[in-house]
Amino acid sequence: MRRRDFIALLGGAAACPIAARGQQRSRMRRVGIFIDLAADDPESARRIVAFAQRLAELGWSEGRNVRFEFRFGAGDAARFRGAATELVALAPDIILAHGGPMTGLLQQATGTTPIVFVNTSDPVTAGYVASLARPGGNVTGFSPREFGFAAKWLELLKRIAPNLTRAAVIWDPSLVGTVGMVGAIQAVAPSLRVELTAVDSREPEAIERGVTGFARGATDGLLVMPSPSAIVHRETIVAIAARYRLPAVYPYRFFVTSGGLISYGNDVVDQYRQAATYVDRILKGERPADLPVQQATKLELAINLKTAKALGLTIPETLLATADELIQ
Fold first, then answer.
1. pTM
2. Which residues of 160-181 are buried (b: 16+ CB within 10 A; e: fewer)?
3. Per residue in 234-264, pLDDT tens?
4. What is the set of domains in the chain, with CATH numbers?
5. Half-sphere exposure for 21 (CA within 13 Å, toward CB)
């Protein structure tokens, strides 16, 4: 992806009137941005624009006192390491990283360049920080809720499909955070009388094969765990769910805008806005070691009513009343 394409996309962010009043810095700062998706994925654009707009409000605008350097993983673990090495070699003042795989590779590549992560599960267990309150080292950032939150996805699936007895869990077993989430789901599955089947999300062929082998009838459903590969292959997952008439719960709103049934999870774009505040503070002299890791507080419930109708499902009124977005 050419850097100028994204700079053009930022548009008014750099021209924010608040930014124009910001304090002039003595030198141009370089901010690396390492995202797990493809460069042409609309979600990449939404995240970057939110981050850049918030930075502009804090006095940093592209071309005046900050320069962005982009790298994209496209959900492909094989690309992550090379992209991380390239980004560190550019000697940025700070790097914004999405997710555990990117954060871990960057931490291996540099022990000095400040790294602010977003949407990275359990950074303590993964070894990215010493503790949430006192990260230590050169890494800090923003995390989703604790692993136990994942159990709510199965509970939600059971609410919208009360006859559910089997659920396929689409996940990436190589991700430490996802392993913990699946463990939380397994812990509540017996009480909900649901049998779980694992489906690997890393390749579209594996998803197709796994769900096709799983689907049997009206008591089946899907749970999609957050991962770069699941997000990149979201159109495939949503299409398969529709083909086999499987009610499915997803971790992010954009699955539902792509035709998925229901999503419940943290607002990823909001974490990019929050990350901009940490980037600002570090560029102004604070240390990542002293900035506590913050967990998501803003959650989104989105429901696609058209998909529910196609599946013959009646969404409980209590869910409709609490939904942040109803897609007709």
1. 0.86
2. bbeebbbbbbbbbeebbbbbbb
3. 999 999 999 999 999 999 999 999 999 999 9
4. 3-143+268-297 (3.40.50.2300), 147-266+300-327 (3.40.50.2300)
5. 3
